[in-house]
UniProtKB/TrEMBL annotation:
This is Conserved oligomeric Golgi complex subunit 8. It is a peripheral membrane protein. InterPro entries: COG8. One of its GO terms (biological process) is intra-Golgi vesicle-mediated transport. Keywords: Golgi apparatus, Membrane, Protein transport, Transport. It is found in: Golgi apparatus membrane. GO terms for cellular component: Golgi membrane; Golgi transport complex. It comes from the Eukaryota. PANTHER family: CONSERVED OLIGOMERIC GOLGI COMPLEX COMPONENT 8, CONSERVED OLIGOMERIC GOLGI COMPLEX SUBUNIT 8. It comes from Penicillium malachiteum. The keyword Transport applies. Belongs to the COG8 family. Pfam families: Dor1.
Length: 449
């Protein structure tokens, strides 16, 4: 039907219609319309569609006229551009073999020349380009190490700090390995120098950690182990046999840090100590110190608290030291006995060469702190029961430290005063031993299951 209508309409149209799908669809639609619709509604519909299409074309022209102009210009030059592109591609293809021959000739000519500065610079630049990622990773090592050390010092948890310190030590070991592999590299030397600064900061943080409050055995052993890895120079004296101390300098550092913590803890009693100093001044200014003075209550409070802290902290310090360094001392002591025997025939005996360990003199220093305090403030206490309580507390402190080899009970006899202030040490010791004997009897009667 559409083909027949197309044949009938073609002679009456100025522009012949193409037999496409759109034309066929519209002719088929015309065949379904009545004569009245063809005369009335269809012209109006076509006019409305034509007007809508015209408006759309105008809007599109207004909106995209530049793109149309550019497309038209490019289309006009397309016929000349394609042959020109083909010609240039052919010229490039013909020039590639010549370029390859020139490159091969250049390489053959200058490959055996070693003193050409331009070639050396070119080789270094090419090598730097190939290894830029590796160099970037190496340059980031000091910043990563510093960040790890700072994060470990900021973390309060033992697990997080342990993991971060381990990562920092691994980074430092990697940097030292690079320094061993490339000793002549200025870049590696600079990176190693920055790493040394970070390790000094880490050493400072670890030593400060030994001064922490209520340090435990696991934390102390872990910190000392890290110090051995970070600062191996502290053990050079021991390894070379220049000192008789088996723990090296770490033992002395540990004791110094814990002593600093003990002193700072005792300094927290300064308000009580100031009251005791006031009582000392009033007793000294009294005309008859043995007769008219009857105070000492504030001094008694200060001394009781002082002895309590001293007993707890001194026992903890010596106990931690023995648990951390005892195994090393036993192993290195047996190994060094044979070395000293073999060297005794060669080297002359030097009494200043083998010094005692730090722990051998440390309890005496602690006792000196205690006895100086007691000698200064004990005369203020005039009440006999208070004096006996303090002396008994001192004996318990001496016995507590004596379990670790630091009994100083006999040294306390030097604290005797004069006249009525002379303390009855025999009576106090007798009571103390009697109480200890009864406790021993009670414990011996407990049945063992």
């Amino acid at each position: 039907m559409a083909d027949s209508l197309l044949e009938l309409l073609s002679p009456h149209l100025q522009t012949p219609l193409s037999n496409d799908a759109t034309t066929s669809q519209y002719l088929n639609r015309l065949s379904t319309l009545s004569l009245q619709n063809l005369q009335t509604t269809e012209p109006q519909s076509l006019a409305q569609s034509s007007h809508s299409t015209l408006l759309s074309l105008q809007a599109l022209s207004n909106r995209s006229h530049r793109a149309f102009i550019t497309s038209a210009d490019n289309l006009s030059t397309l016929r000349s551009s394609i042959p020109q592109l083909t010609q240039e591609a052919q010229e490039l293809r013909d020039a590639v073999p010549k370029l390859d021959e020139a490159a091969v000739g250049f390489s053959t000519k200058y490959s055996k020349i070693t003193d050409n500065a331009a070639l050396e610079r070119r080789k270094k630049a090419m090598q730097l380009t190939r290894n830029v990622d590796r160099l970037s990773d190496i340059l980031e090592l000091p910043s990563l190490l510093s960040a790890a050390v700072s994060a470990a010092s900021a973390n309060s948890g033992a697990g997080a700090a342990s993991t971060t310190y381990s990562s920092a030590l691994d980074l430092y070991a990697h940097i030292k390995r690079l320094q061993t592999l490339y000793p002549d590299s200025a870049l590696i030397r600079d990176v190693a120098s920055q790493a040394e600064d970070a390790m000094k900061e880490m050493t400072t943080n670890l030593i400060a950690g030994l001064r922490g409050q209520n340090i435990r055995l696991a934390a102390g052993m872990r910190t000392v182990g890290w110090l051995r890895r970070v600062a191996p120079d502290l053990e050079i004296l021991r390894s070379e046999g220049l000192s008789g101390t088996e723990e090296g300098a770490l033992g002395a550092i540990f004791l110094i840090c814990r002593l600093a913590h003990l002193v700072s803890t005792l300094e927290a009693l300064d308000p009580l100590r100031e009251l005791a100093d006031q009582e000392t001044q009033r007793r000294t200014n009294s005309k008859d110190s043995l007769g008219s003075w009857s105070g000492g209550q504030q001094t008694d409070r200060y001394l009781k608290r002082y002895i309590e802290i001293f007993r707890e902290q001194s026992f903890a310090i010596v106990s931690l030291y023995k648990n951390i360094f005892a195994a090393e001392q036993s192993e290195s002591g047996t190994a060094s006995m044979g070395l000293r025997k073999s060297d005794s025939n060669v080297k002359s005996h030097d009494p200043l060469q083998n010094r005692p360990s730090a722990l051998a003199t440390f309890p005496m220093h602690l006792v000196q702190l205690l006895t100086e305090t007691m000698r200064t403030y004990l005369p203020n206490v005039r009440d006999k029961s208070s004096r006996e309580s303090l002396l008994t507390q001192l004996l318990y402190c001496a016995a507590s430290l004596g379990r670790l080899g630091g009994d100083f009970g006999m040294i306390l006899t030097e604290l005797n005063g004069e006249g009525e202030m002379e303390y009855e040490w025999e009576e106090v010791m007798r009571k103390h031993r009697a109480l200890a004997g009864r406790l021993e009897q009670l414990t011996s009667r407990v049945p063992v299951h």
